[in-house]
Amino acid sequence: MKYNSTTDKSIVVSASQAIAQGISGDGGLFVPQEIPQYSLSDIEKLASIDYVGRARKILADYLDDFTAEEIDECVTKAYTAEKFGSDNPAPLSYQKYGDIDMNILELWHGPTSAFKDMALQILPHLLTKSLKKTSPDKEAVILVATSGDTGKAALEGFKDVDGTRIMVFYPVDGVSPMQKRQMTTQLGNNVNVCAIRGNFDDAQTGVKKIFTDKNLIEKLEAKNFIFSSANSINWGRLLPQIVYYFSAYAELVNDGKIKLGDKINVVVPTGNFGNILASYYAFRMGLPINKFICASNSNNVLTDFIKTGTYDKNRSFYATISPSMDILVSSNLERFLYHMTDANDSKVKEWMTKLKTDGVYSVDADVKDKITSIFVGGYCDEDKTKATIDEFFNKYGYICDTHTAVAVSVYKDYVGQTGDKTVTVIDSTASPYKFSGSVLSAVSGGQKLPEDEFEMVEMLNRLTNAPVPAPLAVLKNMKARFDNVCDADEMPKFVLSALGVE
Ligand SMILES: *Cc1c(COP(=O)(O)O)cnc(C)c1O
Questions:
Q1: Distance CA 118, CA 9 (A)
Q2: Which mutation among 179, 275, 335 tests ligand 1's pocket best, with the greatest number of atoms within 8 A of CB?
Q3: 459, 444 contact by CB (below 8 A)
Q4: Stretch 165-171: mean pLDDT, rounded?
Q5: How far apart are CA 301 and CA 282, in angstroms?
Q6: pTM value?
Q7: Fewer beta carbons below 10 Å: N end or C end of the chain?
C-alpha cells in the first residue's frame, strides 16, 4: 500500500515513509492510495476478538511494509490494561438523556485522560520503527502544536523513547489550568515545552513553517536530526483512531444493541477534524455508518462549511471552555476533501492555497452535495454547553467534560430536528477532571468554587463520586519544570537552542 500527497499525487511514499515524514515535502498530507475493504463477516470476526486483536488487523492492512511481529509489538505495548485501566481501552457507557439513548464511547481512560492517548500511546512505536526503515541512525525531533490535550499525550507517549526528542508549543492563554500543569510538570530527558504568545492556529502555523523551512532542515540534518510530527496531520495518528470505530460497532453487536449490518450514526466533538475523519475511513472500509454528526463549539467554522460549502476562517476566534476544539483551521479537512473529490489533487491544492492567501475557499456544488448527503454539522455555545453538563448529570446521572457536552448537545438538537432513531455512538473525548473548573461551575448550582485546581478536583469528586484518574491526582505534588514563553516567529530559534544547534 502506497501513500500520496493530497496536493500532488505524483508524490508516492511507503507507509513507513509517510509516518516518518509526518507531512509531505510539498506541504500536503499523506493519504492511502487504496482503502482496505471489510465485509460483514470480517467485522463479525473483529467482534469475536479483543481490542489489541482489532488494532493488529486494521493496522496490518494499512502498514504493509511492517512485519507482523512489528505490528504486534506496537499494539501490545500501546494498549495495556495497566495504561488504560482495562482490556478494552475504548469502552461504551450506555446512558439516557431523557428519552434519548446516549451510547457514550469513553476514549479517555489512558494515561493523560483525553482521547489523544488512543493514538499517541502507539505513535512513538510506529514512528521509531518507521524511522529505522527510512533514516537509520538519525535522531527524530518531534514538534507538536497543541490546544492542550495533544501536547501532554505526545509528551507522555514519547518521554524517554530512544532516538527521539519532543518539543511542545501551546497557546499561553489557551489551555486549561490542568492541561498546563500536566505539560509543565512533564518528566523525561528528551522533552521540552514552550508557551506561544498567540492562539492554537499561530502555534500550528509556526510548526508547519518549521517543517518546510529548508534552511533549518539542512542545519539540523548536518547534526543528524530529522523533523517529524505527532500532530494529527501524521498518518500514524489517524490510523489508530480508525480502530475504535470498528471496536465500538463490534461492542454494540456483542451487547445486542444492533444486529450485524445495521447502520449507526457517529457524533464527534471536532477540532482539527482528525477524529471524525477516522470514522469516515472506517465507513469507507465498510463499517455501516449512516450519518456523521460533526459537533463544534462557538468556533463553528465547520458547521458553516458543511451547511454552505464555503470554508471561511476570517471570523472571531473564541477561547471557550472546550479549548481542544478552539480551532479555525481544521487541518485534516484537507484529506477529506481529497477523498470527496475522488483524489483531485489540483483542486485540493487550489483550495488550500486560497485558504492560506485569502482565508476562505468554496468547494464545487457537487462536492458540497456529496458532503451533505452523509455529514451533518452543528454547534453549541458556552451557555448551552454548561446547561448540558448540568442536566446530563443532575437529572440523568452522567458526568461528562465540556467537549463531550458539545457533542451531546448537538446530538440532542439533531434528534429533535430529524427524529432519526438510528443507534448512535457519541465520542467522549476527555475526563471531566481535566476541566474541573468549568464542569464544577456547570453542576454546582452557583456554589462558591475554590481557586486551587486540585481543591476543585476534590469538590467535583465529592459532588459526583466519579473516580479521579490517578495520573491527574499525582500532579498536585509535582514541580513545574518548564516556564518558556516566546512569540510564534521565535519558534525556530527556540528549536535550535533546545537542540544545541547554532
Ligand atoms: C483533540 C480533542 C478534540 C478534537 O479532536 P480532533 O481530532 O482535533 O477533531 C476534542 N475533544 C478533546 C478533549 C480533544 O482533546
A1: 29
A2: 275
A3: yes
A4: 96
A5: 24
A6: 0.94
A7: C
Distance CA 221, CA 427 (A): 40
Indicate the domain borders of the chain: 86-113+236-469
* 318/322 Cα distance (integer angstroms): 10
Q: How far apart are CA 376 and CA 294, in angstroms?
A: 6
Residue 117's identity, in one-letter code, is D
Q: Which of 340, 348, 19 is nearest to 3 (CA)?
A: 19
Burial 463-477 (b: 16+ CB within 10 A, else e): bbebebbebbeeeee
- Residue 174: is its pLDDT beyond 90? no
54, 79 Cβ separation under 8 angstroms: no
3-state DSSP call for residue 380?
coil
DSSP state of 433: G
Burial code of 71-100, b = ≥16 C-beta within 10 A, e = fewer?
Answer: bbebbeebbeeebbbeebbbbbeebebeeb
At residue 391, what are phi and psi to the nearest 5 degrees?
-70, -40
Atom of ligand 1 nearest to the CA of 270: 9
- Tens-digit pLDDT profile for residues 339-389: 999 999 999 999 999 999 999 999 999 999 999 999 999 999 999 999 999
Helix or strand (DSSP H, E) at 292: strand 289-296
The span from the CA of 409 to the CA of 274, in Å, is: 20
Q: State whether the beta carbon of 324 lies less than 6 angstroms from ligand 1.
A: yes
Residue to mutate, 241, 292, 409, 429, ligand 1, most ligand atoms under 8 Å from C-beta? 429
Determine if ligand 1 sits within 6 Å of the CB of residue 429.
yes
Residue ranges with strand state E in 149-243:
164-171, 191-197, 225-229
- Phi/psi at 479 (nearest 5 deg)? -90, 140
Closest CA to 451 of 470, 473, 436, 472: 436
Task: State residue 127 phi and psi, 5-degree precision.
Answer: -70, -45
Type and span of the H or E element at 484: strand 484-487
CATH value of 86-113+236-469 in 3.30.450.20, 1.10.10.10, 3.30.70.260, 3.40.50.1100: 3.40.50.1100
Three-class DSSP labels, 108-166: CCCCCCECCHHHHCCHHHHHHHHHHHHCCCCEEEEEEECCCHHHHHHHHHHCCCCCEEE
